[in-house]
Amino acid sequence: VDNFKIIESTLREGEQFANAFFDTETKIKIARALDNFGVDYIELTSPVSSPQSYEDCKRICQLGLKAKILTHVRCNMDDAKKAVECGVDGVDLVIGTSSFLREYSHGKSMELIQKTALEVIEYVKSAGVEVRFSSEDSFRSDLVDILALYKAVDRAGVNRVGVADTVGGATPRMVYDLVRTLRGVVGCDIETHFHDDTGCAVGNALTALEAGATHVDTSVLGIGERNGITPLGAFMARMVVTAPDYVTSKYNLKALKSLEELVADAVQINIPFNNPITGFCAFTHKAGIHAKAILANPSTYEIIDPSLFGLTRYVSINSRITGWNAVKSRVEQLGLKMTDEQVKEVTAKIKQMADIRPLAIDDTDSIIRSYHLDLQQ
Ligand code: HCA
Ligand code: CU
């Protein structure tokens, strides 16, 4: 669990998000920001998708980033050749293996899939490029079929095999079982990719690591096909708690917020209010009981220290559920002197006002200041 690698797919899966359109300059900005954050791999849209995708892929390969550059292509020779031509460090091959996709999408038998996969893998390897093979819709594929396929590609020397929950229907228990079984069958690395249709994408990613996976696919804010995949930020929130030393030493966590803002801006969305870490209220404490304890020791009601991400906590005193300890701390912040009795009295005034209408921080400060002024007269 504490040696995982991130395959950041904002520039591939993320381009499948309904709102996404990345011009070359924006792609380069995002690639640099991801590199600065410290992701291990940056995955790009297939160069076969369009002429501009091909040019952009080449450009990003030439930026000299620390992160390895991957592109994601269908498992066939023509696509693989285009990918290698771009100068990528690695090629992510994908083909659908569920009966749904075999019947309604590409129409290939498992035998043909395997034969093609082995040829393409051999070609990519011979070009000195890293190669991953993934079965799309792994969780609705026949287990015996895909294990045989993974075993064959492992023997052929693939660097990673990938498991994808393409439709977002997998539960953590299903993930654990599949990855655990796969871990016993292949020796290569295991990459995982989770869609978030049922809200399990972060939990599934953690569970996959617990079961022996080595790589997790993410995108900034989770953008991708439909409602997207494991969000980078939420995954960082999860992993900074699970593997603090690894995560804090490896990733530039303080750059998360600006990275999310960059992508949110590029695809014209807001950062969700309840986003882990960067949501506007992620470190806001409101109830008096919470506030009192937080002021004494933040760990009482915080699993993550906001300063790790360059952020600060906020103790709200603008409500009827506030408490006098929180108000006292605000009084001190404002540089005013009051006895505890006086703080309790002004707290009562705040509660009275907050019973009538919602208060803004300025309103509460004015109540405190005018009470303080009255004391002096
Ligand atoms: C898709 C493909 C994919 C591929 C994942 C992978 C998926 O858009 O359908 O290569 O591991 O979700 O299956 O994103
Ligand atoms: Cu996907």
UniProtKB/TrEMBL annotation:
CDD domains: DRE_TIM_HCS. Keywords: Amino-acid biosynthesis, Lysine biosynthesis, Magnesium, Manganese, Metal-binding, Transferase. Pathway: Amino-acid biosynthesis; L-lysine biosynthesis via AAA pathway; L-alpha-aminoadipate from 2-oxoglutarate: step 1/5. Its EC number is 2.3.3.14. Gene3D superfamilies: 1.10.238.260, Aldolase class I. Residues 4-257 form the Pyruvate carboxyltransferase domain. Belongs to the alpha-IPM synthase/homocitrate synthase family. Homocitrate synthase LYS20/LYS21 subfamily. NCBIfam families: LysS_fung_arch. This is homocitrate synthase. It comes from Bionectria ochroleuca (Gliocladium roseum).
